[in-house]
Specification:
Blueprint (H helix, E strand, L loop, with lengths): L28 H17 L2 H20 L9 H31 L2 H6 L5 H29 L6 H26 L4 H28 L5 H8 L2 H13 L5 H21 L4
Pfam family, one: ABC2_membrane
GO molecular function: ABC-type transporter activity
Organism: Hoyosella subflava (strain DSM 45089 / JCM 17490 / NBRC 109087 / DQS3-9A1) (Amycolicicoccus subflavus)
Length: 271
């Protein structure tokens, strides 16, 4: 069909399907997420600093506190420290590692370029989150195996009760990492994430001290630790291995996760 100017207007596809190969099509959501997760996982596992933070430090602390006579940790040193070490590992991966990685992805323009590709933004964030979940799972398996080798004997019910605490703790700390990493400048993120790592680890250790010393430990300090994400996670894990569900700890972790996710949603920047 020709218009008044004399040009021919194409009104239908003149070529049957299959004429040209390859025939590119949009990928499905699941393969996109899987590919981005694999990329983020490889980048994380190839980063020496990340491995130091997520694997070597928690494993070294677990073995060191279990073997060396450091402090009074009760009859079973391993039983006393395993909940704290698991919480530290989750915090290192989901919070500090995530915050620093996102901050420097923004600084070097990697996140901006990724955001300009055909890959949806949900897939980018989802890939980072799934990589964190996989690393946390690997950490839990390794640390539990090392703890068992050192004499720790958790019950199956205790391990099952620990799963919700690990899941909520991972979500809460990952949301914190995305909040800080996606909001502040990379230089500030690096300093702040490391400072918060030490501060949260210290607060988490208050819960261990409170469990060891009982009524001799100041109740106000224990109550303060319980409302922080690290303290709530340590208490939830410790109670799980004792065979009880820490509903208060779950609620505190869920509240931190919701607040930090809202903050990340409102402040996250791609540049």
């Amino acid at each position: 069909m020709s218009d008044p100017s004399g040009f021919t207007r194409v009104t239908a596809n003149r070529f049957p399907a299959g004429t040209f190969t390859p025939s590119p099509q949009p990928s499905r959501p699941l393969p996109m997420l899987a590919a981005q997760t694999r990329l983020e996982l490889v980048l994380l596992l190839r980063n020496g600093e990340q491995l130091l933070l997520t694997m070597l430090i928690p494993i070294s602390l677990l073995i060191g506190f279990a073997v060396l006579p450091i402090g009074d940790l009760g009859e079973s040193r391993t039983n006393a420290i395993v909940p704290g070490i698991l919480a530290l590992a989750i915090m290192s991966t989901a919070f500090t590692g995530q915050a620093i990685a996102v901050g420097f992805d923004r600084r070097y323009g990697a996140l901006k370029r990724l955001g300009a590709t055909a890959l949806p933004k949900w897939a980018i964030i989802g890939g980072k989150s799934c990589a964190v979940v996989l690393v946390v799972c690997l950490q839990m398996v390794l640390l539990v195996a090392i703890g068992v080798a050192l004499g720790w004997r958790p019950s199956l019910a205790g391990l099952a009760l620990a799963v919700p605490a690990v899941a909520l703790g991972t979500v809460a700390f990952a949301a914190m990492g995305l909040f800080i990493g996606g909001w502040l400048r990379a230089e500030i993120v690096l300093a702040l994430a490391n400072i918060l790592w030490f501060a949260l680890a210290g607060v988490g250790s208050l819960v261990i001290a409170a469990r060891l010393y009982g009524e001799e430990f100041p109740g106000l300090a224990h109550a303060f630790a319980r409302i922080t994400p690290s303290g709530a996670l340590v208490e939830s894990l410790a109670m799980a291995f004792d065979g009880a569900a820490d509903v208060t700890g779950y609620a505190v972790l869920a509240a931190w996760a919701a607040a930090c996710a809202f903050g990340a949603f409102r402040t996250f920047r791609w540049v």
